[in-house]
Amino acid sequence: MTPITRTPVEGRSDALRQAQGPEGAQGPDGAEGLEAGQPVPEPVEGQASAGTLRQAQGPKGAQGPKGAQGPEGAQGPEGAQGPKGAQGPKGAHGSSGGQGAESAAPPKRAARIAAAVSIALVGVYVAGTLVIVSPTTPVRGAVVAAAGPYFTQKWNVFAPSIMKTNITFSVQAQWRDADGTLVKSDWINVTKLEQQAVPGHAEPSRIQKSSWNAMLAYNARYLALDAQQREIVRDTFIQRADGGGYRAQSAESLIADLDAVSTTPGSGQGDVVRFLRYDYMLKEYATAFSTAYFEQDVERVRWRIDRTRPNDFDNRFSEEQQFDDTAVTFGWRHVDDVIDPETLAVYRDVVTRYGGAR
After folding, report:
1. Which one-letter DSSP state was computed for residue 322?
2. Following CA atoms 221, 226, 232, 237 in sequence, which dihedral angle do they give, to the nearest 10 degrees?
3. How many other CB atoms are there within 10 angstroms of residue 117's CB atom?
4. Using CA atoms in the order 110, 111, 116, 118, what is the torsion angle rounded to 10 degrees?
5. Could you read off the pLDDT of 71-98 as tens digits, one per residue?
6. How many other β-carbons are positioned within 10 Å of the β-carbon of residue 338?
7. Left (φ > 0), alpha (ψ -120 to 50) or beta: where does 46 sit?
8. Is 244 left (phi over 0), alpha (psi -120 to 50) or beta?
9. pTM here?
């Protein structure tokens, strides 16, 4: 066997050293360098020479800027490719499979779809709202039934303790004429008279709802009594005087009478006392107002609480009244005190301003 003669490294040709590079350098397509003594292959047409490959790859598989490759599939800066599947900056493709401006189409299409869906939803909501607030029709009933579980609103959303009943305070008075005959007046709705001054005023005075506030407090104390106690307080608080004539029933006798019919004698006197105090205050108010309104020396007064409840929301367009009006009339109270002239002047001015002067 003929021994293989190895040529010293210094004896290698420059072309071979450039083709191999340092130990382990590769040629095109991952080809390894040649062993010592092997013939240098002839360059194939269309491929780079060994010197060119040496410069393109560098030490141990080094590549050009950002992975540059040969003619077929070679990439430029930021992944640019050659003719076959070449890419432009940031993923732009060339003639074979190129995309270009089409990459911006999906976001625009999605935006148009989202806008169309939003407009459709808003249109359905507005149309449904108009149908719901329209007068009663079969279409309205169907829409309300479908949208009710999701969009139903009631007035107590804005006022959780909204009042459903209109309450008013009316007074009636008695006085004696020149012949000594007892004269009875008509019922005067004080609350309605006060409310005549409210329209046109953004911030009306509290004095324009004094009777309404008084009725709320008085009615709450009245409802705190037992059923038999309510029957007694609706009666007249007048008794005959020893020397003739009439006088107001004393507070002591009233407390005793009310406590005697209480379901819990002794323990319910607090409610009785609170009611009688407000009853006395209301008698003073009714006396001053009646004296100023009728311009008479009033001897007796009584009052009435009227309640009217409008139709509920579902029947608001119905002409038929859904609830009956109610009235609670209290008995006569005897006037046994003298009205202060300054107080009487204030009530006369109120009556005149409210348009209630006779």
Report:
1. S
2. -30
3. 10
4. 110
5. 444 444 444 444 444 444 444 444 444 4
6. 7
7. left
8. left
9. 0.54
